[in-house]
Specification:
The complex is a heterodimer of chains A (635) and B (215).
Chain A lengths: L1 H9 L10 H10 L1 E5 L4 E3 L8 E7 L1 E9 L2 E9 L3 E2 L1 H6 L6 E4 L3 E7 H10 L1 H15 L2 H9 L15 H4 L6 E3 L4 H11 L3 E5 L5 E6 H9 L19 E3 L4 H11 L3 E6 L2 E7 H21 L3 H20 L4 H27 L6 E5 L1 H4 L11 E5 L5 H24 L17 E3 H13 L3 H10 L3 E5 L1 H15 L3 H12 L23 E2 H19 L7 H8 L4 H30 L7 E2 L6 H24 L2 H4 L2
Chain B lengths: L20 E9 L9 E10 L2 E11 L8 H7 L3 H5 L4 H12 L3 E4 L2 H14 L9 E3 H11 L1 H7 L8 H7 L10 H18 L8 H9 L1
Parallel strand pairs in B: 1-4, 4-5
Antiparallel strand pairs in B: 1-2, 2-3
Classes of the chains: A alpha+beta (635), B alpha/beta (215).
Chain lengths: 635, 215
């Protein structure tokens, strides 16, 4: 009875739902039910190792670290269906973080033995846990690499896609196990290697010696270096299959607290994998692409790199990174590519007659790009000091922008169908004209100008004289202040795009056409949240352009976001991730990525989360319609 | 009906609440008359300190000696035909005694359950259960009265003292369907909450817990 309750619960949550009935029954039978009153400290940073995997049945916990007595860094909140304490459990060392119950919480406790067995026997199970935990509790060395990474540490996703064999190019150096410590050390220093594999008479690996063994067992113990090397070797040898993914190798290293693994391919010793290799994989890959971009000197040379980026981005995307990080990585790489194109253009056309700033807007401006992003860009240039200078500038930027547009097309950024590009004379103008555009849009909000403000007001500078962009931004802030009619109109457009949730909490899908029974995640899911964040951010005079940054900045400024900010951020993250995964799925089948999903193909949990996200947006829209008088919002 | 506390001396009396082993127990009966009625099922779950050991549970249906009352069939949902094939109570008693061991027995109005069980043990010439036993209903009343005059007036003290009313008060979720094991599990969760509240009220050991009951 009660075991069945536990089993039913486990079968509804990741990654237990991957398991078969018998396995679930076994786990459920061994579960211990523990209750933690609100504010109970469940695990303590640097305290004893976690003794169980704790799965939250009811309630919620806060995971945080205290780098300093007065400082608290919240890593995560976990709620029903989430778990905690895994890494400390597997490694058997101290807890890395504090975990406190934020409300009365019931946990199912699963023993270490059970979890070990599952991790060893079920690939899907171990992959799930590693993915979710690596991001949060990554080893100190890895987190250091992270902070150095230019690309927000997205590189650790490669752990899940790169087979060990691809990385372990280093061949293992072997010596017979009978040689002396001194001779072995000589081989190591001559070959500049940190580990040596010892083989027996049959040339089979018998053990391994690493720098650490020499340090710990020889030098510090004053051992005679004439002793056979076998006296200090580490056994048993841990091996990994060449076809295993790197994360599995990492798991082995973590679990056994070792830094070297032998790589075996079809029973033969292929090489050696060190934790340094894994670190390099994590840290440098994205940087190397960036470096690659930097070295290219012509558009023709950039084209193959841009294709390579797509492949790497594809890998990153496939591996379940947070949507926010994915889009930021894409934006970061695209920015670099764009800057490179502009540098090439500058070289081709010579010094510009006046300073300029190249700006991007729309999803590019918000750093929320996924695949296949249309160009959305413009040029602001310094106000010319004379009519002659004005003409010169016009001529210069005409050729310049046409070149940039074509170059970007070649690099995989299609033309904007609505012509929001610097190549359109309307969108390459001196600062004074831009100020005038913005003022007009705000003071006489027609449906057309409102649409333009939605797109353009998310602008951010990518290249050139940033101060021009900053001046335009501060002009925008000043002009918008207390423009209640404008904001009411903007709120009106928000009311017109309701999430597709019917009265009885069912999804509203397309009734006919190519996307019958599907719904558009971008326009009907992500769009409303983007619009809400933009409305509030503009109203409060914030400079942030990305939706997540806006929501975070609004947390202590706007009453609605103060209350619902975290939830709306999660909803945004969830829908974005759903969209990105959908697009990946299409691309894997060589189809064009689009934004349409069929809600019937979602899992129960996904459906529930999507409905909750939509409902949240609906609630906020209700609140907005209360805030902005109904008479003002009609379009 | 008020039950009394069993305060038999056991070795566990000096144990701290969090270190003790408990058997949380519930029975389903054909009725409340000690003379005529009998046990239909027994359910029990093991607790070690505050932890409920889900897999380590005990559940047996019993072929009752007496007739089954229609009124009670509706409550526990066990029909005569269901227990027809089940062993008579004797066969279950040894298993139950072994399961209880020398743990502290916990239950809601538990003296009723123990009285019935001991009647059967005595009838079949076996040794009665001598374990220390505590009643979650009594603990509840004690906690409420100990939380002081202020809270006595203001806290939402239940008028209904049945298991399900208390479970609702403590926000413990349960299915409506009755079953001795399911009810024992609910009782265990209730007791779990008490184990967290009691040390704050000066109740630390099993000895304290037993005194608390008498108060």
């Amino acid at each position: 009875m009660t075991v069945k309750e536990v089993k039913d619960f486990l079968s509804s949550i990741q990654p237990f739902q991957e398991l078969d009935d018998a396995a679930l029954g076994n786990i459920a039978g061994g579960v211990i039910v523990e209750f933690y009153p609100k504010d109970t400290l469940i695990l303590q940073q640097d305290g004893p190792p976690s003794d169980f995997l704790r799965i939250i049945k009811k309630g919620g916990v806060k995971v945080f670290i205290k780098p300093d007595i007065n400082e608290e860094v919240i890593i995560d909140y976990r709620s029903e269906g989430d778990s905690f304490g895994l890494l400390s459990l597997i490694r058997g060392d101290k807890s890395r973080a504090n975990v406190t119950a934020v409300e009365d919480t019931i946990c199912y406790l699963v023993t270490k033995e059970t979890i070990q067995l599952l991790l060893d026997s079920n690939a899907a199970f171990s992959e799930y846990f590693l993915k979710s935990f690596l991001n949060k509790y990554i080893d100190k060395t890895f987190s250091e690499m992270h902070s150095k990474s230019l690309l927000y540490g997205g590189g650790d996703k490669l752990l899940f896609t790169t087979p060990v064999g691809e990385l372990a190019s280093r061949t293992a150096v072997t010596v017979p196990q009978e040689v002396s410590i001194k001779d072995a050390a000589e081989v190591m220093s001559k070959r500049k290697i940190s580990s040596l594999v010892l083989v027996d008479q049959d040339n089979l690996p018998a053990g391994i010696v690493t720098d650490r063994d020499l340090r710990d067992k020889v030098v510090s113990k004053g051992r005679n270096v004439a002793d056979p090397i076998s006296s200090i070797m580490s056994v048993p040898l841990m091996t990994t299959e060449a076809r295993d993914y790197c994360f599995e190798a990492l798991l082995k290293m973590i679990r056994h607290n070792i830094h070297h693994l032998l790589v075996v391919d079809e029973g033969k010793l292929k090489g050696i994998l060190t934790n340094h290799d894994l670190m390099m994989l994590q840290g440098t890959s994205p940087i190397s692409i960036v470096r690659d971009i930097e070295t290219r000197q012509s558009v023709e040379d950039l084209v193959p790199v841009s294709k390579k980026i797509n492949r790497i981005v594809h890998l990153l995307l496939k591996e379940g990174a947070r949507a926010g990080n994915i889009t930021r990585i894409i934006s970061e790489i695209n920015d670099r590519l764009l800057r490179k194109v502009l540098e090439i253009a500058e070289r081709k056309f010579g010094e510009p007659p006046v300073n300029y700033c190249f700006i991007v807007f729309g999803s590019e401006g918000r750093k929320e790009q996924t695949f296949k992003t249309d160009q959305d860009n413009a040029i602001i240039y310094e106000d010319p000091k004379s009519a002659a200078e004005g003409i010169k500038a016009e001529e210069y930027f005409e050729g310049f922008s046409a070149f940039v547009k074509e170059a970007l097309v070649l690099c995989g950024f299609p033309n904007c169908p609505a012509g929001y590009m610097a190549s359109n004379p309307k969108w390459r103008q001196p600062l004074i004209i831009w100020k005038d555009y913005f003022a007009k849009w705000i003071h006489t909000p027609t449906p057309d100008s409102l649409l333009l403000s939605l797109i353009f007001f998310d602008f951010r500078p990518v290249h050139g004289d940033i101060s021009l962009s900053e001046k335009l931004r501060s002009h925008l802030k000043k002009t918008m202040k207390d423009q209640n009619i404008f904001f009411a109109r903007m709120a009106g457009t928000i009311m017109n795009n309701r999430p597709p949730l019917g009265f009885f909490k069912s999804f509203i899908v397309e009734k006919s056409g190519e996307h019958k029974d599907e719904l558009n995640l971008k326009f009907r899911g992500i769009g409303p949240i983007v619009d809400i964040a933009r409305l509030f951010a503009l109203e409060k005079g914030l400079s942030e352009t990305s939706t997540i940054d806006r929501l975070r900045a609004l947390k202590d400024k706007h009453p609605i976001i103060m209350e619902l900010g975290e939830e709306i951020e999660q909803a945004f993250e969830f829908i974005s991730l759903l969209r990105v995964h959908h697009q990946i799925g299409l691309m894997e089948r060589s189809l064009e990525p689009d934004n349409f999903i069929n809600p019937n193909n979602l899992s129960g949990l996904e459906k529930k989360s999507l409905k909750e996200s939509f409902q949240l947006v609906l609630n906020i829209q209700e609140a907005i319609s209360e805030l902005y008088r109904p008479g003002m919002v009609s379009m | 009906m008020r039950t009394t506390f069993f305060s038999k001396k056991t070795e566990s009396a000096s144990l701290l609440l969090g270190d003790a082993v408990y058997t949380v127990l519930d029975t389903e009966l054909t009725g409340l008359d000690m003379k005529k009625d009998s046990i239909v099922s027994i359910g029990a779950v093991r607790m070690k300190g505050t932890r409920i050991d889900i897999g380590n549970s005990f559940y047996r249906l019993i072929h009752p000696a007496g007739r089954m009352d229609h009124k009670n069939i509706l409550i526990h949902g066990i029909t005569p035909s269901e227990v027809e094939e089940e062993p008579v109570v004797d066969a279950v008693l040894d298993d139950l005694s072994a399961f209880c061991g020398n743990s502290v027995i916990v239950g809601h109005f538990v003296s009723l359950d123990i009285n019935f069980i001991n009647r059967e043990l005595k009838r079949t010439g076996r040794a009665k259960l001598k374990n220390a036993a505590v009643d979650t209903c009594k603990i509840y009343e004690w906690i409420k009265s100990s939380e002081g005059a202020f809270s006595r007036h203001y806290s939402a003290r239940q008028d209904e003292l049945d298991l399900f009313s208390l479970a609702r008060e403590y926000n413990i979720t349960f299915n409506e369907g009755h079953n001795a094991l399911g009810d024992a599990f609910i009782t265990a969760q209730l007791f779990q909450r008490f184990l967290y509240a009691l040390p704050g009220l000066g109740v630390n050991s099993i000895r304290d817990l037993l005194k608390t009951g008498k108060a």
